[in-house]
Structure formats: C-alpha cells, structure tokens
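PROTEIN DESIGN WORKSHEET
SECTION A - STRUCTURE
LENGTH: 138
TOKENS:
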C-alpha cells in the first residue's frame, strides 16, 4: 500500500505560502473525528489560518494535523485528520490545491509535554475561495 501524497502536498504548500510571505489557510470538513471550535463551523466546514503567526506547536504529520490557536481570545487545541483537509490555499491570492475527503487513518496521537498558550492571532477565518481554481488530488 502506498502512502498518501496529501500530507506531503499540504506541508509543501504551507512552506510555499510561508516562503512567499502569504498566509496559508485550510478548509476542513468537520465531523466527529475533528476537534475545532464548533461556533466557527458553517455547512460542516471550517476555515483555519495555519500560519506560524496564528498557531502554536503546529504539527502536520502524515495522519493528523494539530496546533493551538486563539479563537475569540480563548486558546483552543485543534486536531484534524489529514483526510478531512479539503483544501490549502493562500489567503492573499487564493492559489492552492483542493483534495477529496478521505476516511480517517491511524489513531489520534497523544499530546506530549505541557500544554502551552497560543498566540493572540485568531486562527479561524472567514475568507474562502471558490473551489473552481483548486485542483482535486486523488
């Protein structure tokens, strides 16, 4: 069985945004496998700013994406299975890539070390590009 390209593409596009001084955003499908602030969910999706200035302890592993961030001034821990990431894009240009929803693989990792407070920059976003320019990767 081959490893999915999805986490590698997410990491690469995150780095591309960072290198070009742009803000990487994710669109995530929300179901029972994700931990996100539900008050920011619309139509079973949430848009998350995953820039280094908006997150603390960002981890993009092959099965899970996790970080802490402030939403409305309250620090929240975010856990997203990579399969639930629908797209990653630059907030400034809308350039990015779309993905298909995939089943959750792997168990959720346990946190290591003490919990830390996140930065004061909000991670929840409302900007969402049309999906017409995003390429679906299988």
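SECTION B - SEQUENCE
RESIDUE ASSIGNMENT:
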């Amino acid at each position: 069985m081959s490893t999915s390209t999805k986490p590698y593409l997410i990491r690469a596009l995150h780095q591309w945004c960072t290198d070009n001084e742009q803000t990487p955003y994710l669109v995530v499908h929300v179901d029972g496998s994700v931990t996100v602030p539900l008050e920011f969910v619309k139509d079973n999706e949430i848009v998350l700013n995953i820039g280094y200035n908006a997150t603390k302890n960002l981890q993009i592993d092959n099965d899970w994406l996790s970080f802490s961030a402030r939403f409305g001034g309250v620090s929240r821990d975010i856990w997203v299975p990579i399969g639930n990431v629908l797209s990653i894009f630059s907030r400034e240009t809308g350039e990015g890539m779309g993905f298909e929803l995939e089943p959750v693989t792997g168990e959720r990792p346990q946190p290591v070390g003490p919990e830390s407070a996140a930065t004061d920059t909000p991670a929840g976003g409302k900007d969402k590009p049309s999906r017409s320019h995003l390429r679906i990767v299988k």
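SECTION C - NOTES
Residues 6-19 form the longest helix (14 residues).
Residues 113-133 have pLDDT under 50 and may be disordered.
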